[in-house]
Amino acid sequence: MHDSLSNHTNEDRHEDVERVLVSSAAIAKRVVELAQQIGNDYAHADGRLTVVPVMTGSLLFAADFVRALPQRRLRLQLTTVSSYGGKNTATRGSTLSGSLPKHLEGHHVLILDDILDSGGTLRLLRSEFESRGAASVRACVLLRKKIPSAVSTPCEYVGFDIDDEFVVGYGLDYDDLYRNLPFVGTLRREARA
Ligand code: 5GP
Ligand code: MG
Predict the structure, then answer these.
(1) Which of 41, 117, 173, 175 does the annotation list as catalytic?
(2) Looking at the 3D structure of the chain, how many domains does it have?
(3) Could you tell me the mean pLDDT of each successive run of 10 residues in the chain, 193 residues long?
(4) Domain coverage including residue 34
(5) Fewer Cβ in 10 A, N or C end of the chain?
(6) 164 catalytically annotated
């Protein structure tokens, strides 16, 4: 039992997780692919690229992503978006909390988020950054749900399209737990009490 496959299987497991949707190995590979593609796309913007991770969900994604771009001169500016309740997409919404990135004039902004669901977060941030004079605004999400609201929201870079299920891990939480899982998966019913 010393081959890498069995090690990997042991790693992607948690007693509260029902099913692994995206393995830690798949995430690691895809994050490097995205960083290489985006690094090439922004070659012209060296020194004028501002990466804006949306806290807290994209903390792990952003950390791995920027480490895969060591050769690029880029700025990191965090932002925090809170979602507020509502039974449907029309009454749900997103609001900014905390400070917004500064001095975006002439900078190419790349928003990094964990998951694209209603699209509220990306729509809000895109219009904020465009109105602050960014040279361009693009978005990259690790995950996108296969639902109309997500697929119809403009997003230039997508890691994985996943089924419409509530997922945790790799930054995504349930009640602020499970962000530290290295993979993305669904929770057992008992864990969602
Ligand atoms: P949107 O603004 O597109 O509706 O949703 C974005 C945010 O909603 C994500 O950044 C995340 O915080 C939260 N979210 C949406 N779907 C999920 C999910 O399946 N699991 C978790 N943990 N958070 C989600
Ligand atoms: Mg979020």
Answers:
(1) 117
(2) 1
(3) 52 96 98 98 95 97 97 95 64 75 93 97 95 96 98 98 98 97 97 89
(4) 25-162
(5) C
(6) no
The domain that holds 142 is classified in CATH as: 3.40.50.2020
| Cβ neighbours, 10 Å, residue 160 | 15
| Predicted model pTM | 0.92
- Say if ligand 1 is within 6 A of residue 119 CB: yes
Give the ligand with the smallest distance to the CA of 54. Answer: 2
- CA-to-CA dists, residue 16 to 61, 177, 192, angstroms: 22, 11, 9
Within-domain flag for 118: yes
Token couple for 25: 């190995």
- Whether 143 contacts 162, CB under 8 Å: yes
How crowded is residue 64: how many other Cβ atoms within 10 Å of its Cβ?
Answer: 18
Tokens of 36: 């290489």
* 57 C-alpha to ligand 2 centroid (Å): 5
C-alpha span between 102 and 82 (Å, rounded):
19
Looking at all shown ligands, the one closest to residue 80's CA atom is 2
Query: With a 6 A CB cut-off, is 141 part of the ligand 1 pocket?
Result: no
Indicate the length of the chain as a whole number. 193
Q: Is 186 in the pocket of ligand 1 (CB under 6 A)?
A: no
Determine the Cα–Cα distance for residues 64 and 138; give it in Å rounded to an integer: 19
**CB of residue 115 inside a 6 A radius of ligand 1:** yes
